[in-house]
Amino acid sequence: MTIQSTPKGMRLHIGLFGRRNVGKSSLLNAIVRQSVSIVSDVAGTTTDPIEKPMELLPIGPVVFIDTAGVDDVGALGELRVEKTRGIFRRTELAIVVTDGIWDKYEQGLTDELRAFNIPVIAVLNKTDLQSPAQEAIDKLNVQKIDYVTTSALGNEGIDQLRQLLVKKTPDDFLNTPTILADLVPPGELAVLVVPIDKEAPKGRLILPQVNCIRDLLDNDSYCMVVKERELRDCLDRLKTPPALVVTDSQAFLKVDADTPPEILMTSFSILFARYKGDLDQFVIGATKIDSLKPGDKVLIAEACSHHPSCEDIGRVKIPRWLRQYVGGDLQADVIQGHNFPSDLGQYKLMIHCGGCMFNRREVLSRTMLCQQVGVPVTNYGLAIAYCLGIFQRALKPFPAAWEYYQMSLKS
Ligand SMILES: Nc1nc2c(ncn2[C@@H]2O[C@H](COP(=O)(O)OP(=O)(O)OP(=O)(O)O)[C@@H](O)[C@H]2O)c(=O)[nH]1
Ligand SMILES: [Mg+2]
């Protein structure tokens, strides 16, 4: 796999924050040694976040996000501030840039980032113009905030900044959890069921399917890929049953019927509930479908804005299954991409897609925001399994989540 094709959802997301004009974009250009972000002496040059994927050794594939200065003023400024805050949700490592001072503003930003458990690096830039204030350095030292002094213009301190980025890379990024390899030991087989219908992209598989195949290969497991029509015959021919059958949620009912009950079965999207999100919370969220009443509002969140098959599931199929389950009309609001509403309180449930295009932090941040206002969260695969009555079977491969579910039934 080339650098360019590493999916964005698997890259370490490094956000650059700070007041306007402190040199955020200049630093980004210096780190990546290219001119990717526009630099000027006009405050407020960067208006929309710029994302730059690159290979940062030894970390590997990362994406830098250059943001608009958060001290922005005016109505348009408010919008930019809101957008920049939105970046927090997918930032895994933050760089707070200043031109040598450390004031309430930088402190507030750092406090906010740390409240999200995001590691922070301070960069005191423009050292060619002035030395950083001793007071600033003292404040950083007292709080044990790692910092470097740089001159983006003179290309000084940039190597030290790169080293600090490596040092501060969160461990859980380096040891990425597996998608399904732990469920399919080396030498064992997984059967992946991939419907090829009119929504399937021409000439290729979609990202979660590719991610699963790669995960199995990395683990020395075997993998067989079939359409739902061939599944039964494929299983009949095997000398040893597979350790797991994974299906696209759209073929859930047929695959449930065609897979003998003693064989474990789940969906891609449920695997991604665990890989990108909080499976236990999502399980509880799915059970809240029981409390939905006609007229309730549900938020359906889709990470990508270009996959017709997800679009169909989010806009048409899930709302339909929910209506059938609830026995009346529901209002389903669909959002796409990184935008996320602030008036979450109006929703009775959020149903998120598998999130293959998002990093884990973004799905977890959204879950946290919903929990803060008491809105339960689940994902596509779990909601579908719940509506179709195959929830228990689809959860059987995950004993911990299963136990959590049983406990919630009792309480
Ligand atoms: N002397 C000096 N000037 C710098 C340095 N870094 C950036 N600048 C200058 O500061 C100005 C602002 O730089 P930018 O990189 O656009 O700053 P920014 O933080 O991205 O600004 P906004 O996008 O407006 O928030 C430009 O004129 C840069 O050339 C530095 O290390 N030394
Ligand atoms: Mg900028």
Structure commentary:
- This protein has three domains: 8-174, 3-Layer(aba) Sandwich (Rossmann fold); 181-269, Rossmann fold; 278-410, 3-Layer(aba) Sandwich (Rossmann fold).
- The chain has a six-stranded mixed sheet with strand order 2-3-1-4-5-6, with helices on both faces. Strands 8-7-9-10 form a four-stranded parallel sheet, with helices on both faces.
- By secondary structure, it is an alpha/beta fold.
- The chain is built from 16 helices and 14 strands.
- Helix 12 (308-326) links the parallel strand 11 and strand 12 (331-336).
- It is elongated, with a radius of gyration of 24 Å.
- The chain starts with 11 loop residues before the first strand and ends with a helix.
- The longest helix has 19 residues, at 308-326.
- The structure holds guanosine-5'-triphosphate and magnesium ion.
- Guanosine-5'-triphosphate binds at residues 20-26, 39-41, 43-46, 68-69, 125-126, 128-129, 151-153.
What layout of secondary structure does this protein have?
Blueprint: E1 12-18, H1 24-32, E2 50-56, E3 60-66, H2 74-88, E4 93-98, H3 104-115, E5 120-124, H4 134-142, E6 146-149, H5 158-168, H6 171-174, E7 189-193, H7 207-218, E8 222-226, H8 231-237, E9 244-247, H9 252-258, E10 265-267, H10 268-276, H11 279-287, E11 297-302, H12 308-326, E12 331-336, E13 349-352, H13 360-372, E14 377-379, H14 380-388, H15 391-395, H16 399-410
Parallel strand pairs: 1-3, 1-4, 4-5, 5-6, 7-8, 7-9, 9-10, 11-12, 11-13, 13-14
Antiparallel strand pairs: 2-3
Helix pairs in contact: 11-16, 12-14
Bound molecules: guanosine-5'-triphosphate and magnesium ion (MG).
